[in-house]
Structure formats: structure tokens, C-alpha cells
Amino acid sequence: MWLFLLRRLGQVIPTLLILSVMVFALQQLMPGDPALILAGEERGDPVVLAQIRAELLLDRPLAEQYLSWIWRVLHGDFGFSWRIHMPVGDLILTKLPVTFQLALMSFVIGVLIGVPCGVLSAVWRDRPIDWVINGIALFGISMPNFWLGIMMILFFSVDLGWLPPSGYVPLWEDPWMSLQTTIMPAFVLGTGVASVLMRHTRAAMLGALSQDYVRTARAKGLGERLVVGKHALRNALIPVVTLGTIEFGRLMAGAVLTEQIFSIPGFGKLVVDAVFNRDYPVVQGVVLATALIFVMLSLVADMLYMAINPRLRTA
Amino acid sequence: MNALDVDRLSIQFHTDRGVLQAVDRVSFSVAAGRTLAIVGESGCGKSATALAILGLLADNAEVLGGIRLAGAPLTPEAQRSARGRELAMIFQEPMTSLNPAFTVGEQVAEALRLHEGLSPRDAMARAIAMLERVRIPDAARRAKQYAHQLSGGMRQRVMIAIALACKPKLLIADEPTTALDVTVQAQILALLDELKRETGTAVVLITHDLGVVQDHADDVVVMYAGRVAEKASAAKLFAMPQHPYTIGLLGAAPRLDSKRARLASIEGTVPDLRNPPPGCRFAPRCPFAIAACEITPPLVELAPGHFAACIRAPLDVVLAA
Ligand SMILES: Nc1ncnc2c1ncn2[C@@H]1O[C@H](COP(=O)(O)OP(=O)(O)OP(=O)(O)O)[C@@H](O)[C@H]1O
Ligand code: SF4
Ligand SMILES: [Mg+2]
User: Fold this and answer.
1) pLDDT digits (tens, 9 = 90+) for B129-147
2) Which CATH code is given to the segment(s) A91-313?
């Protein structure tokens, strides 16, 4: 098991290297000259431009730019946003809790809806309840998030006036208000997760329910609730947990449109604003941080898979 | 009173390609402490019969006829409450019949907790004792292991421990050794015999293997294409087989003493149960078939306790003529 983890860690390092090159290349490919933007009023003055270029190492060979960038990143320096006048690292750290809260709430909603629905539709396969659940899941997958978001705002905020239409209050400032501002976007994102998890849970449960050990459990005299909820579900959840972790990673990677619609100041909004403003250090930093989170979560997914799968744990 | 009475049991499976009559009016009884063997080729309805007794057939099955456990009719509700208590079963596939996600100790203990209301700790202690009883060496350590860490024979022992955990009145063993190698087969069957003697449980032993029948069964039901072909005590059946199918089986197993006898080579194949031949289902393969075999032969008692479903039985008369 430890060997497997070490090997997995070994695989992560080249992944991260390739990733960093891509993020760096992204910056090179972006249109517009950052020096021109930063120069602002003085963009006509070649001396100022040269000075800025030198400061940002823009006049050096690409390889050197890359190495010095990596060097700084490894020391926790993600660059400086001239626009917001803040180090990118600090900026990311202020947005991280927001995105984390939203992702966690969405994930919990997704699991609470998706897993039981998947179990139900597997148990009642090809019956009306299965059709209904599958229909809703299809709807949930194909419905654009921005549309559902706008509908929810129209209904719950504009018509009923129950929830604030947008904005965000940090959890530690006013927990109740914080929940009110995040529940709608979390629901929008959570339904997407629920649809995906429901389908995977259903497939895994159908597989588990046809196994011989389920027949053994029934022969032992266990009631259907234990047969389904314990013997089948425990096995069905093994692949679902891994998939769930990846879904969580997707949520952490930011929900660009949803955050935009609800004006939630998380990663999604940060990166969109940065792109529109050509705030390259921020774009780079966010992409890198998201990628890091994703890689870490896939490691976590592997560890969870090992932890809950006796066949691997005791191999 | 018999531990089990099966009275004109019929099972139909509704499939996309029509109705399949898997079992047709099968009757037999087993007394406490005795072993009844059900023998027959693959697909003749042995497992379906066993699963019908437990009430564990697939949803597309329709069951007719009566089943009584210790005299009491086994309704679906009665089956539900009898499973794991009075009624236990060991399956054909030891490799897949245990849950891979729980330790084998937990799986034995679960039955005890459910049926005897033991605390988790007491149930585990009893489970370890059960594992010792089915001769699993180092039971306390094995109890903490998962199925994939055990050999096929060990897994089947665990299945037996689960089945016997609550002292059932009837134990159905559906080809318990088919998937195991020969030495392990003998050990498992010896263990079943021993446990049967100790507990006085009735056993229905389903098998392909006539050697197994001769060594371990008191009574035998020979099934062909969903029907009883012949039914007798093991001694009578081996001494004076009356149904051409039984004779074929015995002929196909010439060295009975070598214990390697298996049902193998009777000419022809098993009929399609969706569309069985009229009359005697064995007719297309039967060397003794005559025109009258187109009428379904009744199961006739030729001698006390010895039944055969063949219009030409007793065959010794035919052969002598
Ligand atoms: N759920 C089902 N749906 C349709 N047909 C079925 C179903 N279960 C069993 N059958 C059919 O019923 C017949 C009897 O099957 P059964 O499993 O009882 O055979 P068996 O005597 O146990 O054979 P084996 O020695 O191979 O285990 C077979 O033709 C089988 O294909
Ligand atoms: S009834 Fe006829 S076909 Fe059937 S076993 Fe007897 S002799 Fe053969
Ligand atoms: Mg079978």
C-alpha cells in the first residue's frame, strides 16, 4: 500500500512540471503586452516601458523567465497583481475559503441528493420511480447552471424575497447570512454533482445487487434494508467515493458562471475578472493553485480508494 | 414429522423469449438428521428448487405447490423469518458468495447478532468459535481477514459456519464442492456429515457427482429437465436403478468406487425447457423409447419408497423379456 502511494507521488511530480510549463505558456500566448497595460498613462515613453520590461524580466529568454518564475513560486511568491495591488498568493488565500465553503456546501447537497436517488433507482430499477429519477438527473445534467441560477434568483429572491439575490458574507462574520447568500449557488452546483453521483451510484448498486454475496445476505435472513443499505451499498460506494472526490475537485476549480451570477467572490470570479483585465499574474496563480488542488484531491481519492477497499488495503 | 416436505413444486420463469418451465411438480421429503441428494444434469432445476425453498428466486419466477418446514407451510413471510434461522443454504460459488467489504468474522457474527440478539462482542466470540468448529485453523486471526485472503475451501468453510451459526432445521447445500479441488471436496463433505450428526439437521445435498451421492446421501431424487425421473433410498437406487436416465447416469459413471464418478456422457442434449418435447422429456435420448412415451409417464411406486417416471419400468422385466 505504501509502495503504491509512493509510486503515485512519483507520478505527481512530472504532472506538476508539465502543468507549470503549460501555465507559463498560457501567459505567453495571451494577447496584449502586459508592459503596455502597466505603463498606463506613460505608455508612450519607451524608457518607462523598458524599465517595466526589465523589472518583469520580459526582456529575458523564455527559459530564464520560466525558471525564475518557478523559483519564485516554489518560495511561495506567486507574483504581484498590479491592478489590485496585492500579492497574488494573498489574493488566492482570501478567495480560497469562499470557494471552499461553496464547494463543500454544493458537494454535501450533491451527495445527499445523488447517492440516495441512485440507490432508490437501482432498487426500483425499471419502475416508475427509476424513470422519474433518471429523468430529473438527465434534466439536471443538461440544464445550464446559469439558467437554473437565474430562475432561482427570480423565484426565491425577486418573487418570494426569501433570499438575497447575490453577494457573499463570510461564514465567520455572520454564519446565518453566509448560508443565505451561498445556499442558492450551492444548490445550483450541487444539482449538477447530484446528477453525476446518482448515475454512478445507480450503476454501482445495480452491479452490487446482482452479486452472489447479496444472495448470501438474504439467505442469512437479513431484511432488505440491511441487504441493500449495508451489503450492497458498502461495495457500491467504493468507486463512488473516488468519483465524488474528483467532483469535489471540479467544484474547487471554480464555478465561473455560477459565481459570476451570484456575485460570489471566489476563484471563478477572481479568474474571470483577471482575464478581462489582463491581470496575468493572477490568472497564472489561480490556474496553478486550482491545478495543485486538483492533483492533491486525486491523490486523496486514491488514498480513500485504498482505505475503503479491503482488497487493496490488505494486498 | 419430516423436516422438509416439498409437494408438487412447479417453477416457471417468465423471460423475453417466453415462459420456461424449470421445475414441474417435484415432490420429496427429508427427515431430520438425514441427507437427501438431488442429482441431475446442468439446468435440470436443482438450484431453482433450492432457491424456491428459501424464497430467493429471481423476480421473474412464479412458484406453485406447497413447501412445509417441520410441518408448517412456508409462505413468503414464513420464509423470510425462517431464513438464517431454521433454513440455511450454502451456495455453489464459494469464491463470490462472501461479501468482499467485510471481514469473514463480521459476516458470521452478523447472523448471530440478528437471530440471537447477541452484542457485537459476544457475537464475534461465538463467530470465532463457529469458525473453529468448521475446522478453520487459527480462527481468531482468520476472523479478521477478508474473503480474498482465504482459499476456496476456507471460504466454503466460512459459508458453512454462517449457515450453521443458528442451528438450522434444514441445510441446503447446492453443489458445495463443485468449485473446489478433490481433496478439499472430501474434507468439506466430511465436515458436513459430522455437523449433521452433531446437530441433527436435515440436509438437502445438490450434486452432479454420483460418488458423492453414494457416500453421503440417505435418499436420492434424480431430476431430468425439471421433473423427477426417479426417487429412492440411495441403497436401492444404486442396486436397482429403474429409470433409463438413472441407468444412463450410472453407466456414464462406471467406476463408482473410485469416487471420481461424474454425470457426463449420455448421448444427446437436455431439451429446451421453453419448448419441451411432449410426453416423457427423456424420450429423444432414451434407448428404450416407444410410441407410448409420447404420453407423460406418471411417477409410479415400483417398490415401497422406490418411484420412477417411466412407462416401461420396472426395466428388469423389459430387459428379461
Ligand atoms: N432467473 C431466471 N430466469 C430465466 N431462466 C432461469 C432463471 N434461473 C434459472 N433459469 C433456468 O432454469 C433452468 C434451471 O436452472 P437451475 O439453476 O435450477 O439449474 P441447475 O440444475 O441448478 O443447474 P447447474 O447444475 O448448472 O447448477 C435452467 O434452464 C436455467 O437456465
Ligand atoms: S417413458 Fe419411455 S422415453 Fe421415457 S424413460 Fe421410459 S422408456 Fe424412456
Ligand atoms: Mg445449480
Assistant:
1) 999 988 899 999 999 999 9
2) 1.10.3720.10
Q: How confident is the model over A286-311, as a mean pLDDT?
A: 84
> Of A207, A212, A192, A196, which is closest to residue A122 (Cα–Cα)?
A207
Q: Which residues of A touch B (CB under 8 A)?
A: 211-213, 215-223, 231, 234-235, 238, 310-311, 314
For A31-61, write each residue's pLDDT tens digit. Answer: 667 677 667 777 777 787 788 777 777 777 8
Rounded distance, CA A286 to CA A254, Å? 10
**Best mutation target, B97, B142, B156, to test chain A (most A CBs within 10 A):** B97
For A237, phi and psi rounded to 5 degrees? -70, -20
B61 DSSP β-pair partners: B13
Q: Helix, strand or coil for residue B59? A: coil
Q: ipTM value of the model?
A: 0.86
Contact between chains at A219 and B88 (C-beta distance less than 8 A): yes
pLDDT per position as a tens digit, B12-65: 999 999 899 999 999 999 999 999 999 998 899 999 999 999 999 998 999 999
Domains in chain B: boundaries: 241-321
N residues, chain B: 321
Fill in the DSSP letter of residue A231.
I
**Residue ranges of chain A that CATH labels 1.10.3720.10:** 91-313
Cα separation of B165 and B153, whole Å? 18
**How far apart, in whole angstroms, are the C-alpha atoms of residue B55 and residue A179?**
50
Distance CA B46, CA B6 (A): 13
Residue B214 confidence (pLDDT): 92
Q: What is the pLDDT of residues A114-132, one digit of tens each?
A: 999 999 999 999 899 999 9
Q: Which residues lie closer than 8 Å to B214 by C-beta, 6 or more apart?
A: B234, B238, B256
Return the residue whose CA atom lies nearest to atom 1 of ligand 2: B310
pLDDT < 50 stretches in chain B: 254-264
Partners of B103 in the beta sheet? B146
- CB-based contact B84 A310, cutoff 8 Å: no
Q: Is B15 in the pocket of ligand 1 (CB under 6 A)?
A: yes
Mutate to test the interface with B, among A220, A225, A241 (most CBs of B within 10 A): A220
3-class secondary-structure state, position B275: coil
What digits encode the pLDDT tens for the residues A239-277?
Answer: 899 889 989 988 888 677 888 888 888 888 888 888 888
Residue B58, CA distances (Å) to A225, A227, B55 in order = 18, 15, 9
pTM: 0.82
CB contact under 8 A, B101 and A234: yes
Encode A144-171: b = buried (16+ Cβ within 10 Å), e = exposed: ebeebbeebbeebeeeeeebbbbebbeb
Residue located nearest, by CA, to atom 2 of ligand 1: B13
Here the cell at position A180 is 443565505
Nearest to B93 among A212, A217, A235 (CB): A212
Kindly determine whether residue B149 and residue A314, on different chains, have CB atoms separated by under 8 Å.
yes
d(C-alpha B165, C-alpha B192), whole Å: 13
Cβ of B176 closer than 6 Å to ligand 1, yes or no, is: no
